[in-house]
Amino acid sequence: MIIHLKRMMYFYSMKKYRNTLYFKLKTELRRPLLLLITVLISFCAYSQTGLPADTVLPKKVLSTFTKMYPQGNTDDWMVSGDTFTITYFTENQWFEVMIGRGGNWIGTSEITDYDRLPEAVRKSFNQSGYVNNEIFIVKFEEKQGPKKKIKIRNWLIYTDDGHGNEVILKFDENGNPLP
């Protein structure tokens, strides 16, 4: 009988302990649990939103672009580091403009025709071994240095070597081959 009473006392003390723990979970631990859940949800929501620079063109970039290319539109653009690349089309031309985050113009690529090549570049290309190949011509303008306003114009002529390998011929405005 004594053993039975000891078991019953143990059972009731454990029940009391369980009830106390349940009560604590219901009251005292509710706030920390709710706070933890709120923090986790906010982290999840924040990680799904990008940085503002990834969703909107900065004002300095936009003003530089509209000053230099008033006929262009800013619908198609991407950012890589601090360089914004804006791609736009006119009636029969394709442009890719690169502008730094601070609004400084870096360079412009323009797909062009063979007829629009300068005479010196055309002569240099005709002396290459790729005259009869299909070509793709890009005029690339860039600043010479961060504080200089002098533009460098290079002509890139993309073709292949007849074996499926791409070849890029680079010329300056005077028709001199570039490395």
Task: Please supply descriptive tags for the structure shown above.
5 helices, alpha+beta, seven-stranded antiparallel β-sheet, 179 residues, single chain, Nuclear Transport Factor 2, Chain: A
Write a structural description.
- Strand 5 (136-143) and strand 6 (151-160) form a beta hairpin.
- With 179 residues, the chain is α+β, with helices and mostly antiparallel strands.
- The chain has two domains: 2-48; 52-172, Roll (Nuclear Transport Factor 2, Chain: A).
- It has helices at residues 2-26, 30-48, 52-55, 59-68, 119-127, and strands at residues 76-80, 83-89, 94-100, 105-112, 136-143, 151-160, 166-172.
Distance from N terminus to C terminus (CA atoms, Å) equals 102 Å
Q: What would the principal axes of the Cα set say about the shape?
A: elongated
Rg (CA only): 34 Å
- Strand fraction: 25-35%
Number of DSSP helices? 5
Along the chain, the helix and strand elements come as HHHHEEEEHEEE
Main sheet properties:
7 strands, antiparallel
Give a concise summary:
By secondary structure, the chain is of the alpha+beta class. 37% of the residues lie in helices and 29% in strands.
Break the fold down into its secondary structure elements and pairings.
Elements: H1 2-26, H2 30-48, H3 52-55, H4 59-68, E1 76-80, E2 83-89, E3 94-100, E4 105-112, H5 119-127, E5 136-143, E6 151-160, E7 166-172
Antiparallel strand pairs: 1-2, 2-3, 3-4, 4-5, 5-6, 6-7
